[in-house]
Structures are given as C-alpha cells and as structure tokens.
Amino acid sequence: AQSVTQLDSQVPVFEEAPVELRCNYSSSVSVYLFWYVQYPNQGLQLLLKYLSGSTLVKGINGFEAEFNKSQTSFHLRKPSVHISDTAEYFCAVSGFDYKLSFGAGTTVTVRA
Amino acid sequence: GAVVSQHPSRVICKSGTSVKIECRSLDFQATTMFWYRQFPKQSLMLMATSNEGSKATYEQGVEKDKFLINHASLTLSTLTVTSAHPEDSSFYICSARASGGERTQQFFGPGTRLTVL
After folding, report:
1. Of A109, A112, A110, A101, which Cα lies nearest the Cα of A25?
2. Are B44 and A90 in contact (CB under 8 A)?
3. Which of A31, A51, A101, A102 to mutate to test the interface with B (most CBs of B within 10 A)?
4. Whole-angstrom distance between the N-terminal and C-terminal Cα of chain B?
5. pLDDT digits over B41-76, tens only?
6. Which residue of A has its CA nearest to B103?
7. For A22-40, what is each residue's pLDDT tens digit?
C-alpha cells in the first residue's frame, strides 16, 4: 500500500514569487507519482506525472517537480506564480494497480 | 480534453432516503470509473473501482450494500447512497479512465456535495 503526506496545508504567496509544495510518499514497491490541481467548482486536473526516466518532470502552466527516490519526495515548484494559480493542489501516488492514493491537499493563495 | 460530468452538483436529502449520483464521460468511452469520497480538509479516499459490465470492486471498509455502484455503459456510472444518514454527508468525486488510453490517466468530475439532514 502507498500513502502520501503533503507537508503544508496552506501556502500563501505573493504574485511573481516562487512557490514550492512539498510531498512525501511511502511505498514498498515502485510507484507512479502525480500532482493534480483543483480550481473552485472544477474537477481535478493533472499538472504532471512521474512514471519513469528523468527525475525532473515538467508539467502544464510552468510547474515542475523532482522525484527523489532516496528522500521519497516529489516536491512541486513554480518559479513565478500568478493570481490564477490560486487553487488546491493534490499529490498522489499509485502502484502497478493504478489506484491513486492522495495527500490531504495544499491550498495555495496568491496575493497581488 | 476529456470531460467528465457529475449530476447533481449538490444534493440535500432527509435521513433514510436514497440518493443517486451520476458520472458521465462526455467525449470518450470509459471502461473503468472510480468513485472517491472527500471529507473537509482531508484527502480523496478511493471507495470503489467499477468496470463496465461487471461488479464494482470496493475498497476495504466501504459497505457495498450501502454504496451501490452501477456501470451499465461505457459513458455512465452511478453511485447510489442507500438509506443515507448524516455521517454519509461528504463530497463524492468520480473519475474515468479512457478505453485504450494510458492506464495511469484518470479524468475527474467536478464532484457532488451530499448533505444528509
């Protein structure tokens, strides 16, 4: 079984500042890792995913994440946020059964 | 992109009644759909996996007689909360995996807020 811990429940950030959302996972097997974003009144949307290969993954909207196997982490970063990045962000992990286990989510609030 | 809808978006019902939630893939066929439940400030918890034309597979601790899942077509899955009680109040989210699509890819609906009085 897999589990995910998102270390920050809320992250306030100023517009054009960088942001990092932390995610750690635990698993006894190889995993796939994901970051999803949820805007108000919308479904979860995939930002990026790590399946294999390069540990630095680039996603949509300027986000990127780095898979660190030794630290069992998959932190999400963006060098410069916009007001429109205000949303809920979920880290998720799955094993070869493709069932997703989610973290509790991080609320990002971008202020002008 | 692939779109998944849920209906209704929110529902309020009296204790003891049953509520049906629909999940539809609008522009693709989905052999597999997933149902999640989310409590406030908590993560999404997988309740069950349904494959078109077969019985749903429930996660440990989820009562299959309480949460009836039907996946009768490649574009529709329904979740019925039977004899709902206040503790069933929650946010229910479905997702769908496209037929022949990448197995890691799930498309999510916007969720249904259930309040049981």
Report:
1. A101
2. yes
3. A102
4. 37
5. 788 999 999 988 888 999 999 999 999 999 989 999
6. A98
7. 999 998 777 899 999 998 8
